[in-house]
Amino acid sequence: MDWRGWDKFQALMRREISHLATFNVSDRRWPMPFCAALASGLPLLVGAWFDHLDYGLVSSMGGLTFLYLPATPLAHRMAALMASAFGLCACYILGVMTHFVPILIVPVLTFIAVLVSMLCRFFVLGPPGSLFFVMAAAIGVYSPIEFLQMPTYVGLLTMGCLLAGLIAFFYSLYTLRVSAPQAVRPLPALDFDFVVFDSIVIGAFVGISLLLAQFMQLDRPYWVPVSCLAVIQGASLRAVWNKQVHRIVGTGIGLVLAWGLLTLPLEKWSVSLLMMALAFIIEMLIVRHYGLAAVFITPLTILLADATQLGHGSTNAILEARLVDTVLGSLVGFVGGLCLHSPGFRNKLGRQIRRLWPSRSV
Fold first, then answer.
1. How far apart are CA 336 and CA 340, in angstroms?
2. For an engineered disulfide with 333, which of 98, 215, 232, 305 has Cβ 3.0 to 4.6 Å away?
3. 271 within a domain of the structure (yes/no)
4. How far apart are CA 207 and CA 186, in angstroms?
5. 49-72 residue pLDDT tens
6. Does 16 fall in a domain?
């Protein structure tokens, strides 16, 4: 037996476990997760009050704009939040419109992923970056609505964005009293590789992940491109690998948690309060350990997409679909990360893209 090889393997495993188990230091305090939970949870409570939880679920997506609130002076905060709200609404509208033209689903979602990634990188938008814009578009694509319902659903999402802006305003008044704002930094010069090349590769792999999901005939596979995007956005190959493992393992554990929650006698009020609690826990954990946050992200996304269907179908089928979606998307995202961080791939494809790009823009 080669003991030296065994020792190397053990050392490798210890390093991997150390990387995957590392908790990041964060100064995020409870008011921010609490306000984020309010922004996405109050629409659910309103929907429950009027016995239209489906309306509340759509409006709660607008509350995700709160997560894009920067730590800058008040005027800049609100302007940035309004821009994010506009982007989220635009992506959702494009997604819902594409729902009625199935042949355009893959190219439109790919285009959205490319364009949003470019804008987020050009304007140096911090985490969660382009993730929720693409998620809104993907959910819109697979929303089972009729054509004449589009204005209603777009209005619901817009009202959720407005509520998030109101909560963000009062939260900013509080937080600016206890801590000084960060200075507004001028936009850096356009970095072609970071802004253009990376965005095109990211969008291409998001499209590939959705194409594979359609080829496998997955039912409402909105989580496949979202999982792909969450993984491929890692700043380094190590970050991409960590996110892939965290997402797959966290989803596996999260499905057990989701199964336990779905066996409870849930109704509209308990679903709303449960989703608010999950949102609060996620925002507390996600900046510290992505894998632990993924455990709670899984039941939240299941409730977000299927809360109105609970009790009308097989719970096991829902859980199995989410696992397949996550694993497929994460694997495609990891392959995309390998390409994105490969010098040879970047040099070869980058030259071709530069030839197609207008010379005056770079």
1. 6
2. 232
3. yes
4. 32
5. 988 888 888 999 999 999 999 888
6. no
